[in-house]
From TrEMBL:
InterPro entries, alphabetized: ThrE-like_N, ThrE/Ser_Exporter, ThrE_2
Keyword Transmembrane helix (UniProt): yes
Composition skew (Basic and acidic residues), residue ranges: 15-41
MF annotations from Gene Ontology: transmembrane transporter activity
Polar residues composition-biased segments: 1-11
Species whose genome carries this gene: Aspergillus phoenicis ATCC 13157
Protein localization: Membrane
Region listing for Disordered, in residue ranges: 1-55, 69-88
UniProt KW keywords: Membrane, Transmembrane, Transmembrane helix
PANTHER family named among the record's database cross-references: DUF1212 DOMAIN MEMBRANE PROTEIN (AFU_ORTHOLOGUE AFUA_5G07620) (PTHR31082:SF11), PHEROMONE-REGULATED MEMBRANE PROTEIN 10 (PTHR31082)
Name of the protein described by the UniProt record: DUF1212-domain-containing protein
Stated family: Belongs to the ThrE exporter (TC 2.A.79) family.
């Protein structure tokens, strides 16, 4: 399938003819040598006008700036913006559309259109019968044109039926003799004599030629299988390391077009359906690539570089396969369980002050609860497939139970020592479905209704699990302790507790983004831009939410992050797919904290304790269980609108050239 790609390093479309009438070569390829006969405007062009002078000046400044930026480390091949380059219809089967457009250009009448259509279809059927049904040699004009190469079945059938594409001349003529490529001589011109030993030519050995053909066939089929295997490995790596899901089909389509592999692709969460087509035999080979969708911000950039090098022809599929296998099999940069547990505790501490109003006295308890979450996530869950299915519920139950227990410790004056809500919410902030919200938002923005809807429903169900676990944990401790805390918020903020409210709000945001990025295997050089985008997005969210509403604040925050990511892609050619993730987590945590939906099950826990469950309390229960999911949906809608507006600002006309790993 053709696609509109225009890149400075390689052209991924069909070759273009030079139709410039001012070309120095004539139509036969002969270069003119008589310079005196050339027009005067070709020999001595007039001086550029004022407007052209400014254009030349601006071009020189732009080229010089680009060269300076590349020396400073900017990627010369382009970045990955947040725009949507292709429409979902462009990923599917296109031959019927291309045929209809071709016939429509001729402006035929209705009856003529029908006859022309039948003629085209009949011609295709006739070629298929000649090529395969009758065993005749296919009429191909150029055996080296990779666009006409079929699949594995085509090559095998061609070899079996005696088709030899290597003997087809450029003019379409096919030799009648399969032995030496020449037409047989007439009988009367043949001289019969005994064949001497010196007449034997090793190149005419039937066995040798048969072996040579088999080797050539093996080489062609091996090349095709290598390209297909590379595409399967690329798909698996992109899904495993957290590539933006709404662009997976485009990545695969661009790779197939560059490698001259006929294929169609359809992505649903957790699975990619790949159909390798053989247009010459009208057959297809379907592959299902299934893998758990993970997130590795460091290896995501490495996969992008490998994908880009193959797309530009700097790497062949044979050379890229070992690189891909190494990325898939090697261990993560931070794979020690104890270090991951420690980072989970530090990230939980960093999210507490700005998202849930945690005080310094709450931080040691938050650190312990965060390390408990990390132990269950990185130690116990990988060892037990059965426990991994109930990991989220058990973590929410255990942390909310312990948070209410610590929150029920009081001073002699009756004031609680620890803030219960900050402990309960900060301890599960790392397992909130922030990345799932981001992916579903981008999929819906790109009009991928199937994948976006499935992921959004999964996010809602996941949030219901967390809300249910929190409610159960609060209820169990409430039944055990009559003096269990009932406070749903922390005491009023003391602006001097951290020295300044801006330290509490913004400094800890940068620290949280850094810890969260390291926890998800980001490289050290990625941390500054990730922290900057997180702080920029939360700053606009903070001031907007204080004056308007938290849902509107999510939109403004997402717009800010998307604007920074698109500019980072367009100016510095960076990987916006990785840089945007920690900033989106800040918006999800802030949106849920402002709604108070995480601990909204406290009312039901008190009703169960006092044995006053009624229809009204059941309604409250439903609201408490659905409050977290509703808040998650509202946050997702705000992020979707914000990212869409940011893409419109940076790319008002779209980015149809964006064939490179766009987010």
């Amino acid at each position: 399938m053709s696609s509109p790609v225009d890149d400075s390093n390689t052209h991924l479309g069909p070759p273009r003819r030079d139709t410039d009438p001012s070309s120095d070569d004539d139509r036969l390829g002969n270069r003119s040598t008589n310079n005196d006969e050339r027009p005067l405007t070709r020999e001595n062009p007039p001086p550029p006008s004022g407007g052209n002078q400014w254009g030349v000046l601006f071009k020189a400044i732009r080229d010089g700036t680009s060269q300076l930026a590349e020396k400073l480390g900017r990627d010369p091949d382009g970045g990955d913006g947040l725009d949507s380059a292709w429409h979902p219809e462009d990923y599917g089967f296109q031959e019927d559309i291309e045929m209809r457009e071709m016939l429509a250009q001729e402006e035929l009448e209705e009856h003529a259109y029908a006859s022309k259509l039948q003629s085209v279809l009949g011609s295709d059927a006739n070629n298929l019968v000649k090529n395969l049904g009758l065993g005749e040699t296919p009429s191909r004009t150029n055996s080296n044109d990779e666009n006409l190469v079929g699949g594995v079945l085509w090559h095998l059938l061609s070899h079996q039926m005696g088709h030899n594409p290597e003997e087809i001349h450029d003019d379409g003529a096919v030799p009648t003799s399969t032995e030496d490529g020449l037409a047989p001589l007439p009988t009367d011109l043949r001289k019969r004599r005994k064949k001497k030993w010196y007449d034997e030519d090793p190149t005419n050995d039937k066995e040798g030629r048969k072996k040579m053909k088999e080797e050539l066939l093996t080489q062609k089929i091996g090349s095709l299988l290598t390209r297909q295997r590379y595409m399967i490995q690329l798909c698996r790596a992109l899904m495993k390391f957290g590539a933006p899901t709404h662009r997976l089909e485009e990545y695969m389509q661009m790779t197939a077009y560059r490698l001259r592999v006929q294929g169609q692709f359809m992505y649903i969460p957790g699975c990619m359906i790949i159909s390798f087509d053989d247009p010459l035999t009208r057959t297809a080979e379907v592959k299902l690539v299934r893998t758990t969708h993970g997130l590795d911000l460091g290896r995501l950039g490495d996969i992008h570089n490998c994908y880009k090098n193959v797309l530009h022809g700097r790497l062949s599929p044979d050379e890229a396969l070992p690189v891909m296998d190494d990325l898939l099999t090697r261990k993560s940069r931070i794979h020690q369980a104890w270090l991951l547990v420690l980072l989970s505790g530090l990230a939980s501490v960093a999210v507490g002050p700005w998202a849930f109003s945690a005080r310094p006295v709450d931080m040691p308890i938050i650190f312990v609860l965060g390390c408990l979450l990390g132990t269950l996530q990185y130690v116990l869950a990988p060892r037990s497939a059965l426990y991994s299915n109930v990991f989220e519920v058990t973590v929410a139950m255990l942390t909310s139970f312990l948070a209410r227990a610590f929150g029920s410790i009081y001073y002699s004056s009756g004031e609680p020592v620890f803030c219960f809500s900050a402990l309960a919410e900060s301890s599960i902030a790392l397992i909130l479905p922030g990345y799932s919200v981001l992916c579903s938002s981008l999929e819906l923005q790109s009009h991928q209704i199937v994948a976006g809807s499935i992921r959004l429903v999964y996010t809602i169900i996941y949030s219901l699990f967390l809300g249910y676990g929190v409610t159960v944990g609060l209820t169990i401790y409430g039944l055990m302790d009559d003096n269990a805390t009932k406070a749903t918020s922390c005491p009023s903020r003391d602006t001097n507790i951290y020295g300044s409210v801006y330290v509490q709000e913004f400094v800890f945001v940068a620290v949280y983004c850094a810890f969260a990025a390291i926890l998800n295997q980001a490289k050290w050089k990625q941390l500054p831009i990730m922290s900057f985008m997180g702080v920029a997005g939360y700053t606009t969210y903070y001031f907007t939410a204080n004056h308007l509403d938290s849902r509107f604040g999510s939109t403004i925050g997402a717009f800010t992050i998307g604007l920074c990511a698109n500019l980072y892609s367009r100016v510095w050619h960076g990987h916006a797919a990785a840089a945007i993730v920690p900033g989106m987590w800040t918006l999800v945590s802030s949106g849920l904290a402002s709604s108070g939906s995480i601990i909204s099950g406290l009312a039901y826990a008190e009703a169960v304790k006092n044995n006053t469950v009624s229809d009204s309390t059941m309604t409250q229960t439903q609201e408490s269980l659905g409050g977290l999911a509703l808040s998650m949906v509202q946050t997702a809608l705000g992020i979707t609108v914000g990212l869409f507006l940011s893409a419109m600002v940076v790319y008002p006309g779209g980015k149809r050239k964006g064939g490179l790993f766009n987010l």
